[in-house]
Amino acid sequence: MKLSDYKALTFDVYGTLLDWEGGMIDGLKTLTDRVSRNLTRDEILEAHAFYESTSQRYSPAKKYHELLPTVYRRLAEEWGVEVTWEQCVAYGEHARHWKAFDDTVEALQYLKKHYKLVVLTNTDNTTFAAANTRLGVHFDGVYTAEDVGSYKPFDRNFDYMIEMLARQGIQKHEILHTAESMFHDHAPANKFGLANCWIYRRHDKKGFGATMHPGEMPKYDFQFNSMIDMAKAHQAELAE
Q1: Tens digits of residue pLDDT in 194-203
Q2: How far apart are CA 99 and CA 76, in angstroms?
Q3: Could you count the other beta carbons within 10 Å of the beta carbon of residue 65?
Q4: 222 beta partners
């Protein structure tokens, strides 16, 4: 099995291409600065993961930037801080400004020469459109939670992606699903029989950060610590 065996790379965006954990920590600072005890970075991220995934299960049709205010309010309640709804809404808008990892643009521009690049994201169209301006490439398919009416790891998100790519002439065995989250992406990739590549952004940290624990660890076909490592591995294959 080689990276060059595939025709399409399907990407999670937030956590894989964009630094969503850094964005969360920055966006929540106005809240966490008011908490009466010192919260660790992972305490903040793990609490966010719980409330985000819970909100996505109970409100699957809600747009991501409309769902984040509820997450902010639940966090404030847990930490005993009084907030206004306007402050909650401001956090939802903050997601549009989360930054790309330093290696993302260079890696995507290289990979674009060799694959169709496709997005399967748990964000909405407006939020992703703002983020896309920082990713440096044109994607051949953009499939958002807003389009599907549910959030990963629900089956219908992957059903939708596979059906849309089949329309472009790309079969399931030609797809390499590329993501950081074991919970949102690799567990369902295993379920659907998709080849998968783990971009292990948290390789120097413990736990799962802003994603829920996946339970039994999913299997993966490739692992890299960054997108540029993936691009370099592909380049090395071609040089063999």
Answers
A1: 999 999 999 9
A2: 24
A3: 20
A4: 197
pLDDT tens digit at each of 240 positions of the chain = 899 999 999 999 999 999 999 999 999 999 999 999 999 999 999 999 999 999 999 999 999 999 999 999 999 999 999 999 999 999 999 999 999 999 999 999 999 999 999 999 999 999 999 999 999 999 999 999 999 999 999 999 999 999 999 999 999 999 999 999 999 999 999 999 999 999 999 999 999 999 999 999 999 999 999 999 999 999 999 998
Q: Which of 209, 174, 198 is nearest to 1 (CA)?
A: 174
* Amino acid of residue 30: T
| CA pair distance 170, 195, nearest whole angstrom | 14
**Which are the catalytic amino acids?**
12
Q: Is the separation of the CB atoms in 144 and 125 below 8 Å?
A: yes
Query: Is 225 within 8 Å of 203 (Cβ atoms)?
Result: yes
Q: How many CA atoms lie within 13 A of 147 on its CB side?
A: 21
Determine how many CB atoms are found less than 10 A away from the CB of residue 90. 16
Both structure tokens of 48: 């966010």
Cβ atoms of 131 and 105 closer than 8 Å: no
Between CA 68 and CA 60 the distance in angstroms is 13
Please report, as a single letter, which amino acid is at residue 7: K
**For residue 143, what are the contacts with CB-CB under 8 A and spacing of at least 6?**
118, 119, 120, 121, 157, 160, 161, 164
